[in-house]
Amino acid sequence: MRSVDDLWYLASQANQRAEQAYHALTADRDSETYLEFERQETVSRRRFRTLAERVESSGCPFGAHTIVYRPSGELLLVRHDGVDLWVLPGGGLDGDEQFQEAAERELREEAGVHADYDGLAMLTRVQFHCKGHQAWGVLPIYAAEAQTTDTTVQDPDDEISDARWFDTLPEDTRDREDLIEW
Fold first, then answer.
1. Checking phi first, is residue 108 left (phi over 0); if not, alpha (psi -120 to 50) or beta?
2. Higher per-residue confidence, 79 vs 3
3. pLDDT of 130-143, one tens digit each?
4. Cα 116 vs. chain centroid, distance in angstroms?
5. pTM of the predicted structure, to 2 decimals
6. How many domains does the chain have?
7. Sign of CA dihedral 93, 100, 51, 83
8. Which of 44, 47, 51, 87 has a CA-to-CA distance to 10 between 20 and 30 Å?
9. What is the CATH number of the domain that holds 27?
10. What angle do CA 136, 104, 153 make, to 5 degrees?
C-alpha cells in the first residue's frame, strides 16, 4: 500500500503509462478515421488514487468500450446501475488483454452481443485533478457492427442491469453529445 505522500510519484507513473497507451492506439492510425476528445475531472484524493492506479496498470482509467450498431441502425447501450445512466458497453482490461480484446469481452459480458470490429471510433484523453496533482489516461471506443442482436446481460461485476437497442439516444445517456457527433 502506498502512503498519501506518494501521489506525485503515482501520478508520474500513470502519466508515463498513459503516454505509452496513447501512442500504441494512435501510431498506425490516420487521425481522420476517429474522433478525439479531451475531458477533465476534479476528483477526491481517494478517487484520484484509484484512477491513477488503473492508468498505471493499463493506461485506461475506465477501460475500453464499443459503439455497436445493428444493421437497422440502432445503437446498443447498457444500463450502468452505479452511475444510473445508459452507457456504451465496456470496462477494464483483464491481465494482458489488448484494448480491443477487452472491449469485445465486455460487450459479450454486458450485452451478450458478438460484433465485427471496424477499428477505433473515438479516443478520449481523460485528465483528472486533485489538490495539486494531475494525471491522465486514455478511453478508447471501438466501432463495431453487431453479428448477433439478442441481448443477455451476464455482467460478472453486477453493474449492468439492462442492455437495449435505441433509435434515439435517451436523455440520460453518458457522453450523449459525443455520441451524437460521431
1. alpha
2. 79
3. 999 999 999 999 99
4. 18
5. 0.90
6. 1
7. negative
8. 87
9. 3.90.79.10
10. 105
Domain that holds residue 129: 4-181
CA distance linking residue 109 with residue 170, whole number of Å: 22
Burial label for 24, CB within 10 Å (0-12, 13-18, 19+), is middle
Non-local (6+) Cβ contacts of 9 within 8 A are none
Residues in a beta bridge with 52: none
pLDDT in tens, 103-158: 999 999 999 999 999 999 999 999 999 999 999 999 999 999 999 999 999 988 88
Residue 57 grid coordinates: 496498470
All three cell numbers of 162: 439492462
Dig out the grid coordinates for 123 from the structure.
Answer: 479516443
